[in-house]
Write a sequence for this structure.
């Protein structure tokens, strides 16, 4: 797919169904109402359509693509606003990265969001995003009262990494991005991919311990 097609507004793209074009147009309207005071419509649509294309190659259910694209574009625009100094909420932002963004990084983000509440922001991403969050990881987190079933594997982008105050990597090796001025930390954890629930529980518990320690170091109050 050429760049000019990928970045084109929904009504100009010929690679989408009518329903998909309408859904993306609606998504662009939502995002413009949220970010229009910071970015032009052209920038918002470019982020939305490039986000759509990020998922289109491996999505299992095409009907959900516009929704996923809107959610990811929203995260990317928030990150860009922080990088460009257009957003100043002062909340620490942590990015959790692993290979497939389907297990370790999703559990870490789940714990961080649950424990920090509105006092900090957590994002996650993968070097080779999978098609769904590991069901054993979802079940293990549900056991401790945290629902990550609504999450989805996604890549990282430059603005997301640049907006993070701390980047926690978990096994993505040389594929993990490095930008000057970020706090980087590698967590050596067993990969839950292909493991059953019994095997995932100790990985989950170690992640919780590490997240609690990270929150303490960042001086973020724990709400749970």
């Amino acid at each position: 797919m050429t760049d000019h097609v990928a970045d084109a507004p929904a009504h100009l793209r010929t690679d989408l169904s009518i329903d998909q074009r309408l859904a993306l147009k609606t998504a662009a309207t939502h995002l413009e109402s949220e970010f229009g005071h910071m970015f032009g419509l052209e920038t918002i649509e470019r982020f939305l359509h490039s986000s759509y294309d990020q998922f289109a190659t491996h999505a299992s259910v095409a009907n959900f693509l516009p929704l996923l694209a809107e959610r990811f574009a929203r995260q990317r625009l928030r990150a860009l606003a922080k990088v460009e100094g257009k957003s100043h909420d002062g909340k620490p932002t942590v990015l959790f990265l692993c290979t497939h963004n389907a297990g370790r990084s999703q559990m870490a983000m789940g714990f961080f969001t649950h424990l920090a509440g509105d006092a900090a922001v957590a994002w996650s991403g993968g070097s080779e995003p999978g098609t769904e969050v590991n069901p054993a990881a979802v079940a293990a987190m549900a056991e401790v009262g945290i629902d990550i079933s609504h999450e989805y594997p996604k890549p990282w982008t430059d603005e997301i990494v640049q907006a993070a105050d701390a980047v926690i990597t978990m096994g993505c090796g040389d594929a993990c991005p490095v930008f000057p001025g970020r706090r980087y930390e590698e967590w050596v954890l067993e990969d839950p991919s292909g493991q059953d629930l019994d095997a995932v529980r100790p990985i989950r518990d170690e992640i919780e311990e590490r997240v609690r320690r990270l929150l303490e170091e960042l001086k973020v109050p724990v709400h749970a």
